[in-house]
Amino acid sequence: MTVYSPKGHNTRAAVVVFPGGGFEGLAIDLEGTEVCDWLTSEGITCVLLKYRVPSLPYDWHCKCRPNDLATSTLALEDAQRMMGLARFHAAEWHIDPHKIGVLGFSAGGYLVAEISAQFRRRVYTPVDAADKESCRPDFAVGVYPGHLRVGDHAYKLNPNLPVTRQTPPTFLVQAEDDNVDGVNQSVAYYIALKNASVPVEMTVHAGWG
Q1: Range list of β-strands (E), 24-137
Q2: Tell me: the pLDDT tens digits for 159-173?
Q3: Which band of pLDDT confidence, cut at 50, 70 and 90, is reported for residue 180?
Q4: Half-sphere exposure of 85 (CA within 13 A, CB side)
Q5: pLDDT score of 151 more than 80
Q6: What is the Cα–Cα distance from 203 to 192, expressed in whole angstroms?
Q7: DSSP E strand boundaries for the chain
């Protein structure tokens, strides 16, 4: 992890950034360092997470039954650990432990949804006091998130994302002409959040142009 602190006004809010990369690599600059530079200029502390990407969270290309889908355990471990560390070091990093959110792109956007839905228990054995802190984000931002829907039905949500009323408020950004994951990924998650009465807003652009 790399912590970027604002040089001027500090809002005491913080954002943990998950770059995209299809769970095979990380776009650490365009969807990482550049984002952190922008956030810190707005007075927001930024934590760039280099999470582990050994494989895909599941094979969304195959006709897998829901029970065959597996959680992206290593990436989720890193995300949960990072949220605990951020809260544990809140005073040292000059942030409010109740204003720590997550922001992710593409596969990182999936990780945003995953930690937003799976925060009640650690997927690894706790190791220290940081793991006693809550790993629930206070807010979430998904930018053209992927892997959120499954099957042939356009809006069938990935069963690894058990959305509830406790899922944090979420903002989704999507391009209508996205030919990689497609707008239906965001729409499926948006519908699930609305049905669970979670505050959610989605902005769909005609295209990135």
Answers
A1: 45-48, 100-105
A2: 999 999 999 999 999
A3: low
A4: 15
A5: no
A6: 16
A7: 2-4, 14-18, 45-48, 100-105, 140-143, 170-175, 200-205
> Is the Cβ–Cβ distance between 134 and 120 less than 8 Å?
no
Structure tokens at 149: 């829907």
Give the pLDDT confidence score for residue 101 in this predicted structure.
98
pTM over 0.85: yes
Q: How many residues can be counted in the chain?
A: 209
Q: What is the dihedral of CA 162, 22, 78, 55, to 10 degrees?
A: 100
CA distance 74 to 24: 12
CA 21 and chain centroid, separation: 13
Q: How far apart are the first and last CA of the chain?
A: 32
- What's the CA gap between 196 and 56, in Å, rounded? 27
Question: Alpha carbon of 120 to those of 136, 164, 185: distances in Å?
Answer: 8, 11, 24
Burial of 62 (0-12, 13-18, 19+ CB in 10 A): exposed
Residue 90: strand, helix, or coil: helix
Helices (H) and strands (E) in the chain, counts: 5, 7
Taking the C-alpha atoms of residue 112 and residue 122, their distance in angstroms, rounded to an integer, is: 15
